[in-house]
Amino acid sequence: MSMAMDTNDRRVPPTARPAIWRDALPFLVFLLIGGCCFLLYWMVDGRRETIDVSRSTQDMLFEDYATLSGHEPDAQEKKKIVDSYISDEILFRESLRRRLYLSDGNIRQRMIDQARFLIGGSPGDPTEAQMRAYYAAHADLYRQEPEISFQHVFFRTMPADPVSILLALREGTDVKGDDFWMGHELPSYGASMISSMFGLDFLHALEKAPLDSWSGPIRSSRGFHFVKVTARTSAIQMPYDSVKHEIEADMTSEMRDDAIATEITRLRRSYDVIIQK
User: Fold this and answer.
1) Tell me, what DSSP letter sits at residue 211?
2) CATH number belonging to domain 146-234
3) Which of 71, 93, 222, 235 has an alpha carbon 20 to 30 Å from 152's alpha carbon atom?
4) Is residue 209 a contact partner of residue 215, using CB atoms and an 8 Å limit?
5) Where is the signal peptide (predicted)?
């Protein structure tokens, strides 16, 4: 009975099992390395970008070449043209990958402007009724701004005796100051023009200065001025017919801005915006 059990029971002894794992280990390592290689290929090669040089693109490139050179490109020239296009495309994508546009303000602004143009599109022309309604609702936009006419004697630096100069001017005596590039009589200058040329404080001083009497010196962004205001014109509402084209342009611009704002709102949902405090 005992002999029969010894003969039939041939199970693998426990001490022999580690040898099986030792024999299988190289195969498992091979599978692991192979899997890593496949994963690496999928990450590097499986996601390769495609540069598709379509037939229409080639025709455009060859047409541009013919226009500039005066003859159709032969086979060798065509290959060179296509290779050059591919090289430029690779460099362009590389510049995007490296985010070079962030370090060049001009490139960044051109890209933004182009995106605005593509998103904003070309809104339809507003109707006559819509333009008249816009004119009525935005009357302040179509008012001719106040104008001031004045004479001035200009000094680059504060004169030594400003009181004597002012008295002389009020008595009608000619006073020679420094040359001024716009001259010494400035008729019918709009408020915005005066502010941009001399500064806002100078404009406010002119608005308060007495008519037909010398005053000063008034300091500006350019120097010091003795001034005599000769006329002031109040803001005037411009007639609809005289600003019709401006209204159309303003409405078109506003519709385009609305379209851009709507699209930016939609796109912003895809971003996590963090504003550093």
Assistant:
1) B
2) 3.10.50.40
3) 235
4) yes
5) none
